[in-house]
Amino acid sequence: MPSLSRRRFFSAAAGAAAVAAMPRLVFAQAAAPAAAGPFAVPPLGYAFNVFEPHIDARTMEIHHDRHHAAYVGNLNNLAKANPQLGTRAITDVLGNLNALNDDIKFAVRNNLGGHANHTMFWEIMGPNGGKPEGEVLAAIDKDLGGLEKFQNDFNAAGGRQFGSGWVFVTVTKDGKLAIETRPNQDSPIMDGRRVLMGNDVWEHAYYLNYQNRRADYLKAWWNTVNWSKIAERYAAAKAGTLGV
To answer: Which of 10, 64, 76, 236 fits 242 for a cystine, CB–CB 3.0-4.6 Å?
Structure first.
C-alpha cells in the first residue's frame, strides 16, 4: 500500500491533471468574431506604440483590435435580425433604449454603448496633444475650477468608479461642462446628454502595465489626450452636430 505522502502526491497530481484537462475558458468579449455588417471599428490614425511608456503598444492593440472589435462583431450579428440598428444614428438608438424589444435591449446597451464609448476614446487621444486653449480652456476654468482641479477631480471620479466603467466630461449645447461616471459600457448619451471626452477605467485599458494601480493609469493617461480633437468636439456640441 502506498505511503501517506505518496498517496498525497498522486492525489495532487491527479487533481492537477484534471485541471489541465478542463477546457480553457475564453471570454466572449476578447474573442468575438468580426462579423460583417453596418458597424466597423474606426482606425486609430496613430500607431499602437505612440503613447509609450504611458500606455504600452500591446495594451493598445488588444484594446482596439479585440475588445472594441468584439462589440462591433456582436452588433453586426444583432443587426442581421434587427437591421434598423444599422440604419439609425447611434445617438438616437442609445437615447431611446426603452423603445427596443426586451430581447435585444440589454445586448444593444452593452455593445452599442461600448462601440460609442470606444469610438470617442480613440478620437480624443493622439500624440503631441498639446494643452487646452480657447473656449475649451475657458469652459474648464468656468465650470470645473481650472485645469489642475479638473484633472484631479476627473481622476478621483475615475478612481471611485466601482468595478468596470467610464469617467466622462459631458457638454451641453451652450458649452457647459460636467464630470460624470457610468458603470460598464453605459454612456451619458443614454440620458440625453453628449460626451466631450472620457477615459476607460475597465481593467483591459491598463492592466498589462498598471495591474491594480488604476490611480497611476489615470494620471498617466493625460499624456495621451489630444486637446485639438476635444476642441473640435466642443465646437460640434455647441453647433448641435456632435455624435458619439
So the answer is: 236
Say whether 54 counts as a known binding-site residue. Answer: no
Alpha helices by DSSP H, listed for 22-173, are: 57-62, 69-81, 90-94, 102-123, 134-144, 147-160
Q: What is the pLDDT along the chain (244 residues), one digit of tens a residue?
A: 444 444 443 344 444 443 333 333 223 333 344 568 999 999 999 999 999 999 999 999 999 999 999 999 999 999 999 999 999 999 999 999 999 999 999 999 999 999 999 999 999 999 988 999 999 999 999 999 999 999 999 999 999 999 999 999 999 999 999 999 999 999 999 999 999 999 999 999 999 999 999 999 999 999 999 999 999 999 999 999 999 9
Query: According to the annotation, is 118 in a ligand binding site?
Result: yes
pTM here is 0.85
Please state which CATH number belongs to domain 55-244: 3.55.40.20
Question: Binding residue per annotation — 204?
Answer: yes
